[in-house]
Amino acid sequence: MIGWSALQLLGRAPAELQVKNPKLAATFNIGGPICASVCTVLR
Question: pLDDT tens digits for the chain (43 residues)?
Fold first, then answer.
């Protein structure tokens, strides 16, 4: 998810999926053996 967010922010996502002029990206992941939660914000 972080990789996809980086592609969007760098303007390198496939043209049909690229967000116009992105400034921020956020991901939220839940999982792991003890239910770890991780939120990441990129700009």
Answer: 999 999 999 999 999 999 999 999 999 999 988 889 999 999 9
CA atoms within 13 A on the CB side of 12: 6
Alpha-carbon span 43 to 40, nearest angstrom: 10
Helix/strand/coil percent split, the chain, to 5: 20, 35, 45
pTM for the full predicted model: 0.79
Partnered with residue 21 across adjacent β-strands are none
Residues 35 and 29 sit within 8 Å (Cβ to Cβ): no
